[in-house]
């Protein structure tokens, strides 16, 4: 790779928008210049968790200064439905009932956002309250329906396996949800055009779906709607489906008024109205040996899904897909319970249910370690997927590339795990108020959408006659560096420098029928599509050059110093101009579909994942026994990004993913009151990690010399979601610190998030037990 | 009497006549097309809207990062404001911008302008260094969801080693033009959305409030700002006190410290720490740099919040509150100011002039412990602040145990105090106080903590206090620099 131009794929390059970010010139939806007369929309949210709407008196709202119109369900000319999975269970505007506290009932359109915010408060709504089901326990007690079918994965005979096992234990873990807290809240701007056209700028991870739903609520064909997004100010799954409502409302209002309409949510409204990571209650029953070998695992994974299906089906499926994490379960049964509740409709969030499954798998390991007295890492190493045997997952996919043992072993060595653990145990013997803990956990994460048809992507590349290049693709930029990586692919293929390649906003007008940028698949899918487009153009240029200058095609190379045509070297610009002059097309689309994959939820069998990404993390913490507070003192991560497309950006994903995952399992607590009202609906009450919460010592390394065994874009691996899971090491390290209170005899069974209160309660219970 | 609000935005002098007194700086900036300053939360918690407000104080420039979302434009009279657009360009970036690019400090980029402004301000703060804890403190008010902060801290360190920025060459010019704005005139604007009165002296202020006791006093607006941005309240008459010289004074006296009502936490922190070192540590965690740059010590008291971090500390320190109404002045012990939830001992037309904190008696020991879900920039579930004084025989001759978050007001644990007084400060005394404290409070359960947790921790903080004053020394998590082995 010595001939790669600076910044080419597989080398580091700065984020393509970095200079715009730091100078405040990068534009987000609310920063775009608006058409004259642009109006502003603010949603009116329900203040009951479950009720029949007896009456909605909106007269005072309509009469308020600046108000142009007020939209209710009757104003939706097309379908008043935005279920992304076509369940027809998600009205854009409430009709006769509200199903959670925060559901959009009406929308105010006014000349200013301030006027709309003032007016929205004047609504007089009469409700007839109905019993609300707010959490998993209540849903089970009341036989609440599921929002999606339950899935069972099984292999072997779990009943027999459990019975035959020399040792057996069962338990339960509660895992809290998580607010995305993208810094840029939900936002959309809709501008009506001629002949029924609607142009929508939306902070969406899924422009095609936004386009389709806008078309549907307007009752128009897709080709009249164009959705565009240059970048999002963070998304993390929270703008995969949750961006749609605001784009649809803006479009309905724009259609109604004939003016452009912007809908940008206030942070509190955003947190009240949109879905979050699913919280789970997971019951496990495990059979094992005295040597720590797991023989059988039976798990039921119940999730609070909220009021509508949204993506809860695939999310709870993915929790099952990862309830093995990196471990082989000889006999296994995993069952999901996607429960309907009168709360926000939970949705995609980085990991998509996978992290919850993994947290449960690691609890099982922890339980087995305490039960056998073995080091948890030793238990992990005994149970990881093998390379030739013991390599079949609960969904009957063979793990062909297991490197968990290698990564665990390397990290144990590099971070000096054993010596530090011994030192910590010695410290804890004499420390009365502060206790320390350490844990080292692996992650194995399946890469591909489990909805097979999503695993396709398109791209569109133009080479202009001056040799400059414009690249478009179906993926969206939310900070993860996808656009940067796409540019890098073009640089590498054409031998160009970054100033010659421009990536433009994602728009359904350039690349249609795209998949959400999700499931960590953005670079895998779109990268191959971009490569396809680039290579088509390149092949045409080579064919042209070979013929024109009578050299063999294999003697033509695109290098950093120019295009080598036999012994001659010309600039890319010269070749582009010559090709144009000879009437060679310099524009091409590109397409890609992931090979090898299949999945049948009916049978619970298939190969849903093209490959797995791996990693391991070691966390060391201190816990204050008086208050339950903790600090993260050191974290070491070794992560597998294959042959990284951009090592610096991938390390950024790992650092950021870890901190977000640690936040999920520690400080980030969603609290609903008894009436179903979310009480943590702003950063004043919902606490994502701050600067000082990052680990004091933070070492992140990419696994070296580890190209993807599958043929992915330049043998890289997806890196968006897998590192999020490394936060589980923090939860287990806190648990390890607590366990010192009875000399490591009892598994503390610490639930998440491990807030100071939960930690204190947990450690006091253990201390009482220890006497 | 002037009828305009005047300040500099970049190099432009802005002279505003027709503004709502509660128009926020963020809305005003974005309406003017300065969209680099972002709205992330509209409540002063995320820092995406951070801008630089520079003021001429005692002949020199003070550079402060503040949250534009809860800063009223009307509070900026006489100031110099810089936004991200003033800092640097893609062709000529500020050293902080260069460092952020080189260290991959931005991912989605939305929080980035706010971080850059905080970082630029930090470089200009007194004693700024590459010390990690100092950087954490400087950046505690900026939330980033993408990077995990590590590259931003690396960028801050890189920027500390970089050369001057474009403002360094302009200091004299800025001083000069701000001097011109300091005309000593009070300001009054009357408009359809309300009246603005900016008094230029304490007598002015007293007069304004006597005439209109309903007027809203605004010091830092870190609380009042939210009434407007979240509560959607319309304030008919707003009276910013930031330009009242008497209220801006911070005086070290032989008896202790007198803090004027317009003195911010940031400006008071060092002086408070001289008297009560642990209070200085606590203030480091109160709000964030942006909040402390706006929020005042007295405002934290005057608003009567049961969960403010200042009041329990100052109650434990036996502080006195000075109030004034017209020409009448009175002083009360601080705890008496808090009557009940939402009710304080402040008469219509009366205002807080200052807080006096006495020097602790020789040998008295003071500690303050803040308990929250997140270490930095979080509202306390419980705050315990304790002062104890023992005689030569180890007997407790004075004790003040004040708590926030345990009742409808900041409150002393009178039962526990009564148990302790006259006893030797030993393990038995501790146990007696721990039991007594359970009777002192009946706290609430809310989203921050349960009543159980608050009760338990209230007692446990006494244990920590005992450990640190009569036991084995420091007994708390050290966020930097190794752990205390206790």
From TrEMBL, chain A:
InterPro entries: Ald_Oxase/Xan_DH_a/b, Ald_Oxase/Xan_DH_a/b_sf, Ald_Oxase/xanthine_DH-like, AldOxase/xan_DH_MoCoBD1, AldOxase/xan_DH_MoCoBD2, AldOxase/xan_DH_Mopterin-bd_sf, Xanthine_DH_Mopterin-bd_su. Pfam families: Ald_Xan_dh_C, MoCoBD_1, MoCoBD_2. Residues 23-131 form the Aldehyde oxidase/xanthine dehydrogenase a/b hammerhead domain. Keywords: 2Fe-2S, Iron, Iron-sulfur, Metal-binding, Molybdenum, Oxidoreductase. It comes from the Bacteria. SMART domains: Ald_Xan_dh_C. GO terms for molecular function: 2 iron, 2 sulfur cluster binding; iron ion binding; molybdenum ion binding; oxidoreductase activity. Its cofactor is Mo-molybdopterin cytosine dinucleotide; Mo-molybdopterin; [2Fe-2S] cluster; FAD. Belongs to the xanthine dehydrogenase family. NCBIfam families: xanthine_xdhB. PANTHER family: ALDEHYDE OXIDASE 1-RELATED, XANTHINE DEHYDROGENASE. This is Xanthine dehydrogenase molybdopterin binding subunit. It comes from Gluconobacter sphaericus NBRC 12467. The lineage of its organism: Bacteria, Pseudomonadati, Pseudomonadota, Alphaproteobacteria, Acetobacterales.
From TrEMBL, chain B:
Residues 189-362 form the FAD-binding PCMH-type domain. InterPro entries: 2Fe-2S-bd, 2Fe-2S-bd_dom_sf, 2Fe-2S_ferredoxin-like_sf, 2Fe-2S_ferredoxin-type, 2Fe2S_fd_BS, Ald_Oxase/xanthine_DH-like, Beta-grasp_dom_sf, CO_DH_flav_C. GO terms for molecular function: 2 iron, 2 sulfur cluster binding; FAD binding; iron ion binding; xanthine dehydrogenase activity. It comes from the Bacteria. Keywords: FAD, Flavoprotein, Iron, Metal-binding, Oxidoreductase. The keyword Oxidoreductase applies. Residues 3-87 form the 2Fe-2S ferredoxin-type domain. This is Xanthine dehydrogenase small subunit. It comes from Gluconobacter sphaericus NBRC 12467.
């Amino acid at each position: 790779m010595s001939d790669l131009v600076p910044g080419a794929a597989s080398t580091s390059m700065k984020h393509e928008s970095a200079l715009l970010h730091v100078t405040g010139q990068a534009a987000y939806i609310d920063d775009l210049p608006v058409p004259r007369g642009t109006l502003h929309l603010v949603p009116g949210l329900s203040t009951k968790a479950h009720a029949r709407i007896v009456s909605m008196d909106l007269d005072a709202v309509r009469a308020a200064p600046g108000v142009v119109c007020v939209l209710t369900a009757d104003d939706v000319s097309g379908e008043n439905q935005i279920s992304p999975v076509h369940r027809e269970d998600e009205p854009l505007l409430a009709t006769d009932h509200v199903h959670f506290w925060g559901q959009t009932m009406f929308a105010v359109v006014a000349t200013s956002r301030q006027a709309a915010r003032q007016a929205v408060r004047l609504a007089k709504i009469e409700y007839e309250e109905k019993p609300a089901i707010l959490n998993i326990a209540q849903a089970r007690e009341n036989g609440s329906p599921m929002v999606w079918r339950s899935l069972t994965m099984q292999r072997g005979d779990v009943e027999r396996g459990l019975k035959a096992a020399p040792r057996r234990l069962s338990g339960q873990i509660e895992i809290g949800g998580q607010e995305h807290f993208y810094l840029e809240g939900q936002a959309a701007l809709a501008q009506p055009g001629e002949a029924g056209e609607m142009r929508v700028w939306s902070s969406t991870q899924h422009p095609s779906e936004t386009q389709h739903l806008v078309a549907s609520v307007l009752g128009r064909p897709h080709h009249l709607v164009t959705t565009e997004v240059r970048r999002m100010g963070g998304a993390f799954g929270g703008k995969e489906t949750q961006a749609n409502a605001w784009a649809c409302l803006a479009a309905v209002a724009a259609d109604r008024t004939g003016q452009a309409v912007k809908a940008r949510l206030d942070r509190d409204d955003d947190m009240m109205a949109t879905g979050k990571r699913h919280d789970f209650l997971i019951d496990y029953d495990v059979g094992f040996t005295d040597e720590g070998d797991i023989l059988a695992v039976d798990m039921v994974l119940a999730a609070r899904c909220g009021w509508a299906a949204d993506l809860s089906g695939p999310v709870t499926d993915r929790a099952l897909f990862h309830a093995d994490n990196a471990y082989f379960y000889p006999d296994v049964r995993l069952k999901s319970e996607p429960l309907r509740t009168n709360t926000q409709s939970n949705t995609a969030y980085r990991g998509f249910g996978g992290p919850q499954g993994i947290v449960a798998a690691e609890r099982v390991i922890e339980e087995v370690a305490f039960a056998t007295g073995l080091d948890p890492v030793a238990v992990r190493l005994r149970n990881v997927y093998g390379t030739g045997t013991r390599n079949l997952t609960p969904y009957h996919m063979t793990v062909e590339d297991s490197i968990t043992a290698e990564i665990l072993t390397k990290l144990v060595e590099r971070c000096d795990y054993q010596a530090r653990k011994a030192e910590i145990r010695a410290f804890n013997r004499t420390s009365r108020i502060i206790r320390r803990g350490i844990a080292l956990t692996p992650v194995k994460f399946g890469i591909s959408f489990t909805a097979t048809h999503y695993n396709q992507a398109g791209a569109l590349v133009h080479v202009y006659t001056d040799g400059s290049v414009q690249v478009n693709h179906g993926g969206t930029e939310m900070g993860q560096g996808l656009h940067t990586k796409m540019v890098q692919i073009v640089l590498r293929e054409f031998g160009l420098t970054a100033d010659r390649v421009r990536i433009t906003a994602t728009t359904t007008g350039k690349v249609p029928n795209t998949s959400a940028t999700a499931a960590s698949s953005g670079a895998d899918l779109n990268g191959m599509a971009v490569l396809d487009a680039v290579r088509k153009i390149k092949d045409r240029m080579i064919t042209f050059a070979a013929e024109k200058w009578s050299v063999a095609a294999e003697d033509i190379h695109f290098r950093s110093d120019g295009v080598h045509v036999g012994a001659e070297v010309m600039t890319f610009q010269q070749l582009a101009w010559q090709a144009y002059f000879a009437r060679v097309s310099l524009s091409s689309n590109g397409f890609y579909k992931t090979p090898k994959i299949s999945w049948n939820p009916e049978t619970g069998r298939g190969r849903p994942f093209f490959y797995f990404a791996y990693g391991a993390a070691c966390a060391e913490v201190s816990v204050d026994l008086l208050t339950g507070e903790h600090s993260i003192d050191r974290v070491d991560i070794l992560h597998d990004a294959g042959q990284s497309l951009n090592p610096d950006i991938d390390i950024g994903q790992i650092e950021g993913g870890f901190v977000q995952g640690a936040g999920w399992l520690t400080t980030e607590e969603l609290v609903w009151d008894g009436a179903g009202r979310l009480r943590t609906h702003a950063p004043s009450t919902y606490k994502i990690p701050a600067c000082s919460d990052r680990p004091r010592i933070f070492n992140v390394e990419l696994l070296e010399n580890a190209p993807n065994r599958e043929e992915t874009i330049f043998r890289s691996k997806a890196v968006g979601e897998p590192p999020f899971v490394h936060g589980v090491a923090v939860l287990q390290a806190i648990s390890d610190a607590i366990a010192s209170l009875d000399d490591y005899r009892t598994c503390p069974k610490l639930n998440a998030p491990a807030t100071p209160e939960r930690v204190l309660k947990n450690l006091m219970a253990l201390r009482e037990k220890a006497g | 009497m002037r009828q305009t609000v005047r300040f500099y935005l970049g190099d432009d002098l802005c002279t505003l006549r027709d503004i709502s007194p509660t128009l926020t700086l963020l809305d005003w900036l974005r309406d003017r097309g300065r969209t680099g300053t972002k709205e992330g939360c509209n409540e002063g918690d995320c820092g995406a809207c951070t801008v630089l407000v520079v003021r001429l104080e005692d002949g020199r420039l003070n550079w402060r990062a503040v949250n534009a979302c809860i800063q009223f434009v009307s509070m900026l009279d006489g100031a110099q404001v810089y936004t991200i657009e003033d800092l640097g360009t893609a062709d000529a970036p500020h050293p902080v911008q260069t460092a952020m690019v080189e260290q991959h400090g931005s991912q989605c980029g939305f929080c980035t302008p706010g971080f850059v402004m905080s970082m630029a301000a930090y470089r200009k703060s007194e004693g700024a260094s590459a010390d990690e804890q100092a950087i954490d403190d400087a950046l505690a008010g900026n939330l980033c969801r993408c990077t995990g902060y590590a590259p931003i801290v690396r960028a801050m360190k890189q920027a500390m080693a970089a050369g001057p920025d474009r403002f360094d060459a302009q200091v004299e010019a800025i001083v000069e033009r701000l001097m011109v704005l300091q005309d000593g005139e009070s300001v009054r604007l009357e408009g359809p959305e309300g009246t603005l009165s900016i008094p230029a002296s304490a007598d002015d202020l007293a007069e304004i409030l006597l005439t209109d006791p309903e007027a809203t006093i605004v010091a830092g607006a870190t609380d009042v700002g939210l009434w407007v941005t979240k509560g959607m309240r319309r304030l008919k008459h707003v009276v910013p006190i930031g330009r009242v010289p008497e209220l801006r004074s911070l005086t070290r006296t032989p008896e202790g410290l007198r803090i004027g009502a317009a003195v911010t936490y940031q400006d008071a922190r060092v002086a408070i720490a001289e008297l009560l070192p642990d209070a200085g540590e606590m203030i480091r965690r109160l709000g964030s740099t942006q909040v402390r740059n706006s929020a005042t010590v007295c405002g934290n008291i005057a608003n009567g919040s049961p969960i403010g971090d200042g009041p329990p500390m100052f109650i434990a320190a036996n502080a006195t509150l000075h109030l004034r109404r017209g020409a009448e002045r009175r002083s009360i012990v601080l705890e008496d100011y808090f009557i009940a939830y939402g009710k304080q001992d402040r008469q219509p037309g009366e205002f807080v002039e200052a807080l006096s904190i006495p020097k602790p008696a020789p040998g008295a020991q003071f500690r303050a412990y803040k308990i929250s879900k997140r270490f930095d920039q979080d509202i306390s579930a419980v705050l315990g602040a304790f002062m104890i004084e023992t005689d030569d025989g180890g007997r407790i001759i004075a004790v003040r145990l004040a708590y926030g978050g345990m009742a409808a007001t900041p409150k002393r644990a009178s039962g526990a105090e009564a148990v302790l007084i006259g006893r030797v400060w030993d393990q038995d005394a501790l146990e007696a106080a721990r039991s007594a404290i359970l009777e002192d409070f009946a706290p609430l359960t809310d989203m921050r903590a349960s009543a159980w947790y608050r009760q338990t921790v209230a007692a446990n903080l006494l244990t920590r206090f005992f450990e640190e004053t009569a036991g084995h020394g420091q007994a708390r998590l050290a966020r930097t620099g190794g752990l205390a082995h206790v």
